[in-house]
Amino acid sequence: MSKEVTEKETEETKLTYAEMQDFLERTLKLITPPVAVKFVRPDEEKPKGVATNIKPMTFCQAVTVARQGGYSVYLERGTISCYNARVAFGLGTEEEINKDIEKSIETTTGKYAPTKEIATKIVMSKFRIGTGKIKGVAVAPLGKAKFVPDALIFTCFPWQAYYLTNAYLWMTGDVPLQFETATNSLVCGYSAGIAGWKKKINCCPSCTGGRAYGGTESTEVYWSMPWELIDTIIEGLKERSQRSPYPSLINIPLPAPAPEKHFFKKKDEEDDTHYQDKNLL
Q1: Rounded distance between C-alpha atoms, residue 119 and residue 101, angstroms
Q2: Strand partners, 100
Q3: What pTM value is reported for the model?
């Protein structure tokens, strides 16, 4: 049985999910809320509060639908249109997954790898949950989640990811914190998967799918965390924000250089450089 949660206090924290979302949005000045992800095991029921009457979409689209539209959705093999995500989550029979792997190798060749041999190595070494380990994935804005998440995904700016990382390090001293990445599957496998299944914090850029289908901006990254660390991250942000609140501007800004100390020569001086940009004079 899946564990249902409401706006009451949960076992994990004294804050409700809505209060956690509000705190994270205000503290980090997030543009969109963090997204909760739950892997539904074969012996669990589908979580309540998630829509199933949806057209097939990529997992990165589901994350965008949640963070930008405020929707909660439930994805199964038939409603995940991306074969890379199906492979990452192990959704389908062994035969179906093998066909998806073959398709992934085919499209990786020439796009991410010069030969099929290298493409095969890339695809087979990427993160993935074993076939049949889960039967579906629930995705929702944190404040609307009616389930206990496995992972929390932030679509944020690098400086916000830096603050989240520092909140964890402030509380744990667990340095160095190492991240994982690959050619693609970065929202499904390397955000939801690494955080929710391997139980590790991860930070990575958007892959082609996340950019093209999920609409992730070129200035944004994915910072993902296992749900078990939510109290640690919130407490770390609370303590550090008292000392260095986001966005933590430079304390003593430097003035513009005086003309006599400028890097470029004055107009009446002889120009003996071949790299000087005359448009800046």
Answers
A1: 11
A2: none
A3: 0.84
